[in-house]
Amino acid sequence: MSVVSQVLLQADDELRYPSIDELQNIKDFLRTGAQRVQIAAMLSENEDKIVKRASAELWKLHPDYIAPGGNAYGQQQRAQCIRDYGWYLRLVTYGVLAGDKQPIEQIGLIGAREMYNSLGVPLNGMADSIRCLKEAALSLLSQTEADLAEPYFDYLIQGLL
Fold first, then answer.
1. In angstroms, rounded to a whole number, what is the distance separating the alpha carbons of residues 161 and 140?
2. What secondary structure does DSSP assign to 77-141, as a single string?
3. Under CATH, domain 33-160 is a member of which superfamily?
4. Domain layout of the chain by residue ranges
5. CA proximity to 82, closest of 66, 99, 68
6. Which of 4, 110, 125, 159 could serve as a FRET partner for 102 with CA atoms 20 to 30 Å apart?
7. What gap in Å lies between CA 105 and CA 120, rounded to an integer?
8. 93 and 40 Cβ atoms separated by less than 8 Å
9. Greatest CA separation for the chain
10. What is the four-CA torsion angle of 38, 42, 43, 48, rounded to 10 degrees?
11. Cβ-contact 116, 124 below 8 angstroms
12. CB 92: neighbour CB atoms within 10 A?
């Protein structure tokens, strides 16, 4: 849900007009709209590059994952890991565009921990994979853009731990 939707729903629930602070939050959100769209475009246009860089870093950090018996050993398992990278990057773009972490929570984190636990995927490794994805993605953005996108990666990391 976007900042605008949140403000309107909360004000309506309380049968009041939006407060000055809430209107300022909307103004701030709208002021960064073009930048949010630019960030989402940059991340989506560079998905392959970001995913390749992030997965290479993860395999360096955890070579046991791609070794025989590891969670990403074999072509199919490795492809599934890489697919998840793209999915998480897409979730970050949803958060950036909405200016809210709720899409990440609703679409990507509810049930993720339980799913990974049931599959025997180490959650610390998943958090490391998102850290690698974050580093690869933020390296392509300006500092201002990175500052705007970073909290959404951090939210994912914390949600997996």
1. 26
2. HHHHHHHHHHHHHHHHHHHHHHTSSHHIIIIIITTHHHHHHHHT--HHHHHHHHHHHHHHHHTTS
3. Phycocyanins (1.10.490.20)
4. 1-31, 33-160
5. 66
6. 125
7. 22
8. yes
9. 61
10. 160
11. no
12. 26
Burial 70-80 (b: 16+ CB within 10 A, else e): bbbeeeeebee
Kindly provide the b/e burial profile for residues 13-46, where b requires at least 16 CB atoms within 10 angstroms of the residue's own CB. eeeeebeeebeebbeebeebeeebebbbebbeeb
What is the SS3 assignment for 43? Answer: helix
The counts of H helices and E strands in the chain are: 9, 0
Identify the CA nearest to 42 among candidates 136, 154, 153.
Answer: 136
Q: Which letter does DSSP use for residue 148 in this model?
A: H
Contact by Cβ (8 Å): 129, 85: yes
Q: Which two tokens stand for residue 121?
A: 């995927």
Q: Which residues neighbour 161 within 8 Å (Cβ) at sequence distance 6 or greater?
A: 123, 124, 127
Q: Which residue has the tokens 């000055």?
A: 20
Give the tens place of pLDDT for each residue, 44-100. 999 999 999 999 999 999 899 888 888 778 888 888 888 888 989 999 999 999 888
- How confident is the model at residue 40, as a pLDDT? 96
How does pLDDT run across 126-150, given as a tens digit for each residue? 899 999 999 999 999 999 999 999 9
Q: What backbone torsions phi and psi does residue 10 show, to the nearest 5 degrees?
A: -65, -45
